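Hey, I'm writing a tutorial for new members on how sequence and structure tokens pair up, and I'd like a real worked example in the thread rather than a made-up one. If someone can provide the structure for the chain below, I'll link this post from the tutorial.
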Amino acid sequence: MGADVMGSQLRDWLALAQVLALMGSVGINVWIFIAARSDSRWQAMHESMKHADSELDTRLEVIDRHLMDSKAQFDKRLSILETSVDGMPKHRDLLQIREQLARIDKSVGALDERSEATGAAVNRIEKYLLESRR
């Protein structure tokens, strides 16, 4: 039992030492942080970061303006393209035009046949009339 009591006390002392070490570490880190913030190098770095943020904001504004201009140009071009496409015939319209052209081709072919027949008849009549005059 004496060994158990001594082991228990040792564990308690070790736990206390761990808590003290942790608190000491936190305290040192807080002290370093506070000391660093009051250091002139930290102040210079902070000012440098402010300047860099300002430059970055300026660059981002330029990029934003450029993107907005590009978007406006793109929207304008897209609008022109949509207007152009709206005026173009659709697939259905082209099919109707093909059908009409096919019908016209048939009609013209029939007229050609009739005009050839008519031309041949006129030639025969002309030949007859010329021969009968002699």
